[in-house]
Design goal:
elongated, about 220 residues
């Protein structure tokens, strides 16, 4: 009987050690996520012509996530992704948001799930240990739209009247894509519903810009 409890205690200790190792890497990922979010917050007070230097500061931090991704993939045992993923979900969503916003600001395009994985150095063969869950990817995109709705307002303050129109087209296309998804996760569905308010906010800015004839007519 004693050997049974010794074995159980040994399993508990192994679990605790593994959890601590994962927590150390997640703390590193979380710091990088917060650093990038802080830098990207400056877009709201930065003229559009000066945005690229900000992105150049964020990109090395994104690239440094390769090391953290590899470390987590090495720590998590095979086939235990879903057991441990909640430990890094919050941090990875912020990192995904940063990658998505950088992609939009640089190219006015939507970053794919595959490209996001590549940006963070996450390899396909790690999918049973460390990868990007589809729901985390979608959460990151929603956060990006939240931020773009702010940018639409602040761009006008900075004298950039084209940005809200570009943001509006992008956000509408993204929203249309979301409507095709069967969202069963309650939190994700509620966050998707909140996109309607972001779209309304952006549309109000665009309407005001057009009403005041601050942009050249589009053919």
């Amino acid at each position: 009987m004693d050997s049974h409890w010794d074995h159980v205690n040994s399993l508990l200790e192994q679990d605790g050690e593994l959890r601590e190792k994962i927590r150390e890497q997640v703390a590193d990922l979380d710091k990088k996520a917060r650093d990038m979010a802080g830098i990207l917050d400056k877009i709201h007070s930065t003229p559009s012509k000066s945005i690229n230097p900000l992105l150049d500061v964020v990109r090395p931090i994104l690239h440094s996530c390769h090391e953290t991704s590899a470390a987590l993939a090495a720590i998590v045992p095979p086939n235990q992704f879903w057991r441990w993923k909640d430990m890094w979900s919050h941090s990875i969503r912020t990192v995904i948001y940063a990658a998505a916003l950088v992609e939009y600001l640089a190219s006015r395009s939507l970053i794919s799930l595959e490209h996001t994985s590549e940006t963070l150095g996450i390899k396909e063969e790690w999918k049973d240990r460390f990868s990007i869950a589809v729901e985390d990817y979608l959460h990151g995109l929603i956060t990006m739209v939240n931020e773009l709705s702010r940018l639409a307002v602040n761009s006008v303050t900075l004298g950039d009247y084209e940005a809200p129109i570009e943001i509006s087209l992008f956000a509408k296309n993204l929203f249309a894509g979301f409507t095709k998804l069967n969202l069963k996760n309650d939190l994700l569905r509620r966050r998707f519903d909140s996109l309607k308010y972001d779209l309304k906010k952006i549309e109000e800015v665009v309407y005001d810009v057009k009403l005041r004839k601050l942009t050249a007519p589009r053919s």
